[in-house]
Design goal:
By secondary structure, this protein is an alpha/beta fold. The protein is built from 14 helices and 14 strands. Strands 3-4-2-1-5-6-7-8 form an eight-stranded mixed β-sheet, sandwiched between helices. Strands 11-10-9-12-13-14 form a six-stranded parallel β-sheet, with helices on both faces. Helix 1 links the parallel strand 1 and strand 2.
Length: about 375
Amino acid sequence: MNKPKIFLNVGTYLPGYRGGGPTQSVKNLVEALSDEFEFYIFTANHDLGVNEPYENVDTNSWNKYGGVNIFYSSDQNKSRNLKQIFKQQNFSLIFLNSFFSTDTIQILILRKQLKFDTPIVLMPRGELSKGALNIKKPKKVPYIRFAKFSGLLDRIHYLSTAEDEHDQIQKLLKTDKVYKVSNIPNTEKKIALDTKEEGKLKVVFLSRITQKKNLDYALETLKHCKGNIYFDIYGTIEEKKYWEKCQKIISTLPNNVTVNHKGELPNENVIATLSKYDLFYFPTKSENYGHVISEALQASIPVLISDQTPWKDLETKKLGWDYPLKYYQKYTKKIDELSTYNKQDYNNLKKRIYEEFRTEGKLAKNIELYQLIFYQIIE
C-alpha cells in the first residue's frame, strides 16, 4: 500500500539552522511520521538571513536529504516552482508552517487559481497569539480580513500547540477546525553533571535575536545580580537596531556580570552545548511552543522563562520557573539564588529534571495523535 503523500512547506530547512524552532520541529515531526507518510518538503535554497545557496544541493529541483524529498527553491522562482509542482504532483495533504509567510499566501492563491481540492492543514506556530499579533498589527489585521473575505481560508484545518492560540484561532478566524497538539521533541537526551561552581552561574540564552524574544529584558535583570554571572548568548541577529540596544545595556552591566555573544549554533550541537550550562534563561514575550525550552530540559538544565509560553507550573514540576514579566525582581532574585548552589545541589537538580522530562510514553501518544489528525483530514 502506497503511503499518503504530504506536501510540507517551511521557510528554511536542513542543512540550515538559523530558522530556529520551526526547522527543528519540522525535522522531528518528519522523522517521527515517515514510516506512515511520504513527505515532500518545499523550502528555500538558503538559510534564514543569508543569500548564498547551500552547497551540494540542486536548486529548483527535488533532492534527497536525510532520506526525505526536498525541493530547494530559489527566491525568484518560487511562484513558478510551486505552480509546476501542484500541476504535476497529486498530494494527499498540504501542510503549511506559517500563517503570514509569502509561501503560504502564494499556495493559498494557487489553490484558488488551479482549483485543486487537496486538504490543507496550517500550523501558525504562534503567529496568531495575541502577543505576536501585536507586532506589525497594522499589516496583519487587514490581511486576515482580506483572506477571510476572499475565501483563501476556506476549508483549512489548523494545528496549535498552545491553549491561548487555539482559542484565538477559533475566535479570530471563526472556525472550529482547530486541533490541539504538542510539538514532537528531539528524542536525544544527555545529562552532564559536575558543571556548577559555587558562587558562579553559567547562564545561556539561545534564540533569534528579535524584540519578541526579549533579550534586552534579560540583560536588564542582570544589572542587579550580586553573584558572578556568565551569560552567553547564541542566536542569529535578525534585528540589528534591537541588537544595538542590547549592546548598550551590556555596556552598563556591573563587573560581576560577563556577557558574550557566541554567534549561531547549528541544530546538531544544541543539546550538547546547552548541557554545559547551569541555567537556560528565556523571558520571551510570546511562544506557541518554545522548542528551545524543550531542548534545554532534554539537556537536563533548569529553565527560567516568562509565563508567555505553554510551559506552565515549572516549579511544581521541578523543571524550572515561569514568572510574569511584570515581576522583574523575581528573575534577578532567582538567578542570584541559583548562583549560591554548590555542585551537589546542582547535580541533584539536574537529575530530577532528567527523570521528570523522560518523554518515551508521551512521545508515542504524540505521534499517534498526529497520525490520527492527518488521516482524519485526508479522509
